[in-house]
Amino acid sequence: MSIRILEPGFNVTIQDLGRASFQHLGVPVSGAVSPVALKIGNALVGNKPGMACLEIRLIGPTIEVLCDAIRVALTGTITEIELIGENGRCRPANQSLVLKKGQKFKIGTISDSGSAYLAIEGGFKLPEVYGSLSTYVRGSIGGFSGKALEQGDEIPLNSWNAEDRGELRVSNLAALEENGPLRIIFGPQKDFFKQESIRDFLTSPYLITRDADRMGMRLDGPVLKHERGYNIVSDGIVTGAIQVPGTGQPIVLLADHQTTGGYPKMATVISADISRMGRLRPGDTVKFMEVTADEAEKARFEHEKMVLSAISGFVNADPWLDEKALYTENLISGFL
Amino acid sequence: MSPENSPSSPVFLSAGDTALVIQYGEVVDVSINRTVRQLAHAVRQLDIPGIIDIVPTMRSLMIHYDPLSLTKQALIDVVQPLLSNLEELEENNKKWLIPVCYEGEFAPDIDEVSKTTNTTIDEIVRQHTLLELEVFMMGFLPGFPYIGLLPEVFDLPRRIEPRVYIPPRSISVAARQTTIYTINSPGGWHLIGRTPVDFYDANRDEPILVCAGDRIKFKSIPSSEFTEIEKDVKAGNYNLELE
Known about the structure:
The complex is a heterodimer of chains A (336) and B (243).
Chain A: E1 2-7, E2 13-15, H1 35-44, E3 53-56, E4 62-65, E5 69-75, E6 81-83, E7 90-91, E8 96-100, E9 104-107, E10 116-120, E11 154-156, E12 167-169, H2 174-177, E13 182-186, H3 195-203, E14 206-212, E15 216-220, E16 235-236, E17 241-243, E18 251-253, E19 260-261, E20 265-269, H4 274-277, E21 285-286, E22 288-290, H5 293-312, E23 315-317, H6 321-335
Parallel strand pairs in A: 13-22
Antiparallel strand pairs in A: 1-4, 1-11, 2-3, 3-10, 4-9, 5-8, 5-10, 6-7, 6-9, 12-23, 13-20, 14-15, 14-21, 15-18, 16-19, 17-18, 17-20
Chain B: E1 11-15, E2 19-23, H1 30-46, E3 51-56, E4 60-65, H2 72-79, E5 95-100, H3 110-117, H4 121-128, E6 133-138, E7 145-148, E8 163-166, E9 170-174, E10 177-180, E11 185-187, E12 190-194, E13 215-220, H5 223-235
Parallel strand pairs in B: 5-13
Antiparallel strand pairs in B: 1-2, 2-4, 3-4, 6-7, 6-13, 8-11, 9-10, 9-12
């Protein structure tokens, strides 16, 4: 009842929706940087929306199935799953598929997104820490031994087989492909910045630098100048907070951010846009757009509707497609 | 430019659409922190569905909420009436007696602290172990407590060059506060000792030892006893509670 990691990829971790209720003890929330893709992936394999998946941030793992069969789905990317030893046959992302015992499969370089998720039916048989399986590598919390996956790891699963019940495919990709400027609410420390910098922030594109991990992404663009210094007495931090240290280059904080911190936070990305913020990768540019608190609340409800319609719009994936191709090939060989 | 703050009328700030900041001030002030914790307690007592976590700091309270079940305004409406009726916190928090070795390699900055403050090392140790202190807030790292208020001799600025690596269990001081590093971390406080106690241990049933409001007193132990006490602590045979 497990899978074996043949090649670990790069910093692949187990993530669910995180542990949000222990920030008062200094425990970071962690969890998927792009929760929408995690939820849709889980729905494809018949899991509850918040179950833990493998989060892949740049290069995916190569995995061998050790139990009878597993049902998986890759979401958050259009990268295909490569079936090893089958003449490079691939299966598309955004649909479920069953892989049998001994099958090896590879998720290569993720080139279209900063985060992708491999959902597995039944999920991982691992202990929760503070109510979550999410891995916080810095604190060795959660996931598989509190670390990113390594070669040879055998990750235990909850189910040993995949029922024969047809496969599903996402037909409405809108929730996974949202783009445009990231919407923000100014504050909590907007008053620490010069007016001209607040203008620059809203009008100029910012580049996601290579200095990016699960804690945050450093941006490059017009320097944001402080009016009242850059050392503040620490206060609470939320995911999406845009903090500006002395250099004036903003840092957008992601799932593994500290629970409290001492740099002024000019603005905060609204919760409806957190998932697509998590899809950004080094080299991407991003723009910001101000919204009101009311608009942010509406946007969040709209966003949830999109997720629901993506899930209710699943269609049957034709599981026989590849077998048909194979059959044709056999026919052709037969004729020769 | 600074928003108006006062004990009875803090300002409400948005941290996006998932958290409300109730800010009492912009400086480190023990009485502000006390008010913040009183408010945290009062909000927690109401047990409002949709509140995800309540995080006190030295100057403000952050309430994390689920925007699908609560609006910012609804939350303000709940919090507002509490502000003028905050009650003294009941003293039902845990009291800890934490052994610390202030010697040798465990205390790389104690000589420097001794010189800057013109105080003998013995006196530094005496002052650090003198008072029953209070955990003001948790943050920065899992299980990392901000503890104070230390005697005035510890009114030190942070180190000019922060360290890139600080070993867990290091006892550090700055600005009349003291803390224990819980995991490998960079940091700018002065390291004056080491405890054999894990304030955070991912493999323990309850990984985090203390929480805001707990009382802490430190006790000096010689380096010759460190390993022995470390074993006893691990085995649960060492009493960490203050009588």
